[in-house]
């Protein structure tokens, strides 16, 4: 499970050889630092049945001041034993405020303007 950043953000990956991973599914609301419960992890029968739940890590509180971490349960249907339809469709809808709440601060805007000006000057001078 890969979350947060990078080209494989919010994906479930699988490697038949345990080394060369490929994207098997794209998800939403991926848990942070997931630790899935794999009931047959040590069965060594070559027939892994998948997972339906696990524990994850969450920051709670104000991230700029005091905060603390908790362990939370997450549920999913990445199992060959179940077909829970609620986990098979996209259902999360966010309000516009969620998308725009992380506005750029003054320092970031200044850096973007400087880079844009430098690029404009380069284009105009050549």
Short key terms for the protein model shown above:
alpha+beta, three-stranded antiparallel sheet, two-stranded antiparallel sheet, elongated, single chain, 126 residues
Going by helix content, strand content and strand pairing, the class is: alpha+beta
Radius of gyration: 21 Å
Low-confidence stretches: none
Mass-distribution shape: elongated
Overview of the structural elements:
The structure is a single chain. By secondary structure, this protein is of the alpha+beta class. It has a domain at 11-92. It is built from 2 helices and 5 strands. The protein has helices at residues 96-100, 106-125; strands spanning 11-14, 22-26, 35-36, 50-61, 67-79. It has a 3-stranded antiparallel beta sheet with strand order 3-4-5, with no helix packed on it. A two-stranded antiparallel sheet has the order 1-2. The longest helix is centred in the last third of the chain and has 20 residues, at 106-125. It starts with 10 loop residues before the first strand and ends with a helix.
